[in-house]
Amino acid sequence: MEKEIEELLKILEQGVSPFHVVKEAEKQLKEAGFEELSLKKKWNLETGKGYFLTPFQSSLIAFWIGKNYKKEDMLRIEMAHTDWPCLKIKSLPEKKGKYRTLNVEVYGGPILNTWLDRPLSAAGRVSIKSKDIFRPEIRLVDFKKPIFIIPNLAIHMNRDVNQGIELNKQVDLLPLSGIESEKEKEEEWFLHLLAKELNVEQQDILDFEINLYNSDKPEVIGVNEELVSSPRLDNITSVQACVTGIIEGKRNNGINVIALFNNEEIGSRTKQGGDSALLPMILERLYLALEQTREEYLAAVADGMILSVDVAHAIHPNHPEKCDITNQIYLNDGVALKLSGNQLYATDSEAVGIIEQLCQKYEIPYKKFANHSNIRGGSTLGSPVSSILIMKTIDVGIPMLAMHSSRETMGKEDQVTLCKLMKVFFEEERE
Description:
Blueprint: H1 3-14, H2 18-31, E1 35-36, E2 49-53, E3 60-65, E4 75-81, E5 86-95, E6 99-107, E7 120-128, E8 137-142, E9 176-179, H3 189-198, E10 205-214, E11 219-221, E12 227-230, H4 233-248, E13 255-261, H5 278-289, H6 294-302, E14 305-309, E15 312-313, E16 335-338, H7 349-361, E17 366-369, H8 382-388, E18 392-397, E19 399-401, E20 408-411, H9 412-427
Parallel strand pairs: 1-2, 4-13, 4-14, 14-18, 15-19, 16-17
Antiparallel strand pairs: 2-3, 3-13, 5-6, 6-9, 7-8, 7-10, 11-12, 12-20, 16-18, 19-20
């Protein structure tokens, strides 16, 4: 199996929350020799080395400084998001009754019915009481086994179900975890379970950010094993491609950056999201640490370029009419260059020209993609980030089916292709 697919399957299985996605990306960077920095400390940077930061544990910024770096060399950025539409457990989640169910809320825009009748687990981070009030202990948690299910209502009780039923988010999406026994009557049974998993006292748990996840395993499928079926393809495919790009695409000149943001699925307007001062602040500190002035930093931004990496819609086998009549892409067609006249994608023609030439030079298959004119489509990190960092920008990604389902489908070769593009974008030297 191709190395790119092996790496993708591994991070898909381990990346069960944005915090765990960042943890896996961090692991790969450390193994490749990247050093961790802190926003709270002074930076002493060297050329020919890589560095990374993990702000708020759910976002990651990494950069490589070329060995022969000069201030006039080009700044290049690849970015993706670490989150996906899902169900999140509320702070006081236990619903009283014979059945043990949890109160949850919808995060982002998932296809809700795909979360029913699936084996579900839970993962995220937990704040625990500490001696220093201003530094609570932070621990990641992953139950790693299916402990929840959201059961459908039987067709005998809902005869119209196959005509389409709107799910009530407060009623129909409560996950079931078991049946209350006389021996285990606990009003806060989930907190008890969480404390047991973390090996801490229940009263020491202060708060948590925990999401449910589809615990089905990623699979290579198809007659010729040409497809990948998995939860969380949107957008862990792009995360892994960015990490591969910065590890393997080490040019001697210039600075390469990857930015993996949380909260894209809810608009990016958070401290750890793309529509914030996080990336500009880190970039400015990078240039100042290299003894560049703020004016030189702003000049580097003006000459730079962003690849916003997020998935695209492949032509659906049963509904080809939902796609644009000319700008189409199938699974295993290569990288989608995503275009939108209304700038839902931030792509501009200069950036397209650059990527097209790269693809042609390195024989990377690609196609231009646009949404059907009657269908709005989604948005990406490209527009909000490029409105803050004034740079040439293009939105790219792999085509896929069933976007925002609890389990999605992609072409295996497209991941190989995307990783190649991420690599050559970072390693190609300017004339």
